[in-house]
Amino acid sequence: MTSLKSKLKEDLTDAIRARDELRSATLRLTLSAITKEEVSGTSARELSDDEVQQVIAKEAKKRREAAEAFTQGGRAEQAEREKAEGLLLDAYLPAQLSDEELGAIVEQAVGEAKAAGAEGPRAMGAVMKIVSPKVAGRAEGGRVAALVKRSLAG
């Protein structure tokens, strides 16, 4: 078992013992999503820590989107719970890149893509191919794509 997955299980046990309903429910759902990912496909397999992190990131993103939807729907109580669950999951993810750090990585990638002959908005794919591995798990794809588009347009 990977160290991140075992940490999640230990934290779930602690949350259940402490009768922390929010934490235990969130960790149960996350572990369920990890298990679902492990058994999906043609054969069951053990996920690596990086893959577990990707599942956690996906779950945290779902919580943020749900909180936004609840807020727009006028359901503040559910929105607060979703935000709390998202923050709880963020603790298991690596620190997110600041706008300045992400901007520097994008600018460097745009420079590399231009050196390779890619110009203008059509270079989006080439730049994303360079940026994605460098920021994996530390910046949301939509945020990266928006910054790349802005950088290529300007």
Compact overview of the structure:
The chain is mostly helical and 154 residues long. It contains seven helices and no strands.
The gyration radius over C-alpha positions equals 19 Å
Give me the strand/helix succession.
Answer: HHHHHHH
Number of helices: 7
- Return the structural class: mainly alpha
β content, as a range? Answer: under 5%
Description:
- The protein is an all-alpha fold and 154 residues long.
- The protein is built from seven helices and no strands.
- It has helices at residues 3-17, 21-39, 49-72, 76-90, 99-115, 124-135, 141-153.
- Helix 5 (99-115) packs across helix 6, helix 5 (99-115) packs across helix 7 (141-153) and helix 6 (124-135) packs across helix 7.
- The protein starts with a helix and ends with a helix.
- The mean pLDDT is 85.
Please name the defining characteristics of this protein.
7 helices, mainly alpha, globular
